[in-house]
Amino acid sequence: MTHGPAASDDASIAGDSWLATAQILVVDDEPGMRNFLVRTLAPRCARVEAVGDTVAAGRLIEASHFDLIILDNILGGRTGLAWLAELRRDGLFTDVILITAFADLETAIEAVRAGAADFVLKPFRTKQILNAVVRCLDRAALRRENFVLRRQLTVPARTQAVERIVGTSPQMAAVRDLVVRAAPTRSTVLITGESGTAKEITARALHEQSPFADRPFVPVNCGAIAADIIESELFGHVKGAFTSAASSREGLFFYAQGGTLFLDEIAELPLAMQAKLLRVIEDRKVRPVGSDREIPIDVRLIAATNADLPERVADGRFRADLYYRLDVVRIHLPPLRERVEDIEPFTRMFMDQLTLQLALPPLPISTSVLQRFEAYPWPGNARELRNRIERALILGTFGEPGPGAPAEPRTDDLADVEKRHILRVLAATDGNRAEAARRLGVSRKTLDRKCAEWNAEPSLDH
User: Is 7's pLDDT higher than 70?
Assistant: First the structure.
């Protein structure tokens, strides 16, 4: 028995903001219904594929990503519900609209339990199926957006990140040029630089200026996730994959679909996860923990580190093949002490931002204040400068003689600048060289060699 669609309804479809970029898979064994859905969706969507059975559908799902599946419940040899339950057990979380001509309460309950996002009864009008598609796409986008927002205490408004790459130095002009060149591509970008040099802001700027700026930007601090759960966090897991896996869960790659996944502190990734990340980059697929199915992904990767990755590769702490995969386009953010001309624009930007946030009157930025700021090496870079401005606003004065430490005469000798910076970090860690090396992003061996050259105090760590 063939069930054709009802007459089409050309009424406008509200809220179809995600429809134009959607990739949709239709699975129905009736040629008439497949043709109708393709004619309805193809002019409105980025891509529509239609097949008559779950075997062909499975091949397409393994080959590429889909935002939505429209699935007939009565298929030759099996039900759509059974196939949907199988997909969910394998860790595929793509939204599914179930369509059927034989609806009852039991089928509707089974559809919800199996994980269907919507349920449409045949015959249906064009407007009905389009509204169902738009609802699913909007809900999926909202779910991802809410997830990302919950992971962040503060989220800069779109375009703010671009505006916050400030500075008149040649180094920052080169950074802005690289951002403009790399942003339109899907190429992997590696951002390097000391802590506080605005690596995440640069990553956001890359995303904001990309063709997929309206898709999620998902930041991940690789050093803040325990080694035993990072695979599940990134790739997701299926129910029963491990002791505490009471239900299936999407990973961060899922939430970044179509957008950007920012892997901060990539050097902290355990070696076992480095191998798995390398495979994801090469195959463009992830395997949820406990699943036998690999799921295609459409994600742009940006990585960042304050460590010396070539040195870690030489020491065997970072995979050389992963390093070369990440280092397609490199953007290096120089420390603030190497671009003194950028201190004034940073100071004025932070003053403008913080006076609004704190609802406090701005402080005058005098020539003497700027001179003191320019004479200080800023081991914490822009982050330390921002904190200094915030403290000054709260106290009502910049204080004397300088930002947290006596100002020293500035020299142009790079070795002298390096020595002052390293000794300040050592002082801040009470002589703990292991901690100082971590903050500086160098190896302990390198720091010990420098201290021996300067006859510095012996280490206080154990």
Answer: no
392 closest CA partner among 367, 349, 424, 360: 360
Indicate the pLDDT class of residue 159, thresholds 50, 70 and 90. Answer: very low
Between β-strands 217-221 and 260-264, what pairing exists: parallel, antiparallel or unpaired? parallel
- β-strand partners of 24: 48, 68
Question: 236 and 93 in contact (C-beta within 8 Å)?
Answer: yes
Write the DSSP string, 407-437. -----S-HHHHHHHHHHHHHHHTTT-HHHHH
What are the phi and psi torsion angles at 308 (to 5°)? -90, 95
CB 65 within 8 A of CB 298: yes
pLDDT at position 327 over 70: yes
pLDDT tens readout for residues 341-390:
999 999 999 999 999 988 888 899 988 889 889 889 999 999 999 999 99
Pair 249, 232: CB distance under 8 Å: yes
Integer Cα distance of 188 and 299 in angstroms? 10
Q: Can you spell out the DSSP letters for 210-230?
A: STTTTS-EEEEEGGGS-TTTH
End-to-end CA distance of the chain: 79
- Is the CB of residue 370 less than 8 Å from the CB of residue 401? no
pLDDT at 17 (0 to 100) = 62
Amino acid at 94: T
Tell me, what's the pLDDT at 113?
A: 77
The C-alpha atoms of residue 196 and residue 441 are separated, in whole angstroms, by 12
Quote the distance between the C-alpha of residue 155 and its chain's center.
Answer: 12
Tokens of 78: 């099996």
Q: What's the whole-model pTM score?
A: 0.68
Q: How many CB atoms lie within 10 A of CB 70?
A: 27
| Average of per-residue pLDDT values in the chain | 84
Residue type, 117: A
How far is the C-alpha of 82 from the C-alpha of 90, rounded, in Å?
A: 13
Could you identify the residue written with the tokens 């000794």? 423
- Mean pLDDT for 80-109 is 83
| Alpha carbon distance 26, 86 (integer Å) | 17
Cis, peptide link before residue 170, omega less than 30° from 0? no
Residue labelled with tokens 């996944």? 261
